[in-house]
């Protein structure tokens, strides 16, 4: 079991302005959403956690190495993926989830930080292997792409990716790292939306409601990445329009965009405030 944790849990790490959430599903199944491992955490009197070190120490072992069932990247900003290259080097990651937007950054410009580049390279490797094998490539190679994208069209990178590894908004996920976990884990995907493919990174965040625990004692967590107010309202409107209001129920809410006012108001209100 994840050290010092008894039973299914949501763990929110103190990482400053950024997101790092560990979800304990069972003794051997751990999901990590985003990562912000700061070098400054090594300083004496600093409240931030050296997160990769903590995960290496606390994750369950498989074949003598720390094992993480799944890493989900909401979007490739540095404060959501800092330390990923180190994590990938020190931990076996069974499966990774991401939106297609990370492949729509301009490749001829330095628009991604080093850790986001490391994530993109790993996602490419896994996707290529999955397409080549035409099915499940196995632990340490699995990938799930969340959202719509022209990348699935003929001639594009994700054409022929098996449908079982592509999840669209409004859909549910009840498998994790190749296993059916419907009795202890469930994710409902709220975003990103199809029309947001070319939007800024924040607006193409993977947004989801996660259930862990048992049917008798479920726990609901709502994770919306760094979306702004219009996108947040679109999530609520689309969910209501499709009769899925229950998919917005939560016991625990990770405040979108680190409590930024951009998620609380429309742009015109922000401009008035700034004026």
Topology:
Elements (H helix, E strand, L loop, with lengths): L8 E4 L8 E4 L5 E4 L1 E2 L14 H8 L2 E2 L2 E8 L5 H4 L2 H7 L1 E7 L15 H20 L8 E5 L19 E2 L4 E2 L1 E2 L2 E2 L4 E7 L15 E7 L4 E6 L5 H13 L10 E3 L12 H8 L1
Parallel strand pairs: 3-6, 6-7, 7-8, 8-9, 15-16
Antiparallel strand pairs: 1-2, 2-3, 5-6, 10-13, 11-12, 13-14, 14-15
Question: What does it look like?
Answer:
The longest helix has 20 residues, at 114-133. Strands 1, 2, 3, 5, 6, 7, 8 and 9 form an eight-stranded mixed β-sheet that branches. A five-stranded mixed β-sheet has the order 10-13-14-15-16, with no helix packed on it. Strands 11-12 form a two-stranded antiparallel sheet. The model has no long low-confidence stretch (mean pLDDT 85). The chain is α/β, with parallel strands linked by helices. It has helices at residues 51-58, 78-81, 84-90, 114-133, 229-241, 267-274, and strands at residues 9-12, 21-24, 30-33, 35-36, 61-62, 65-72, 92-98, 142-146, 166-167, 172-173, 175-176, 179-180, 185-191, 207-213, 218-223, 252-254. It has a single domain (9-274), classed as Metallo-beta-lactamase, Chain A (4-Layer Sandwich). It contains six helices and 16 strands.
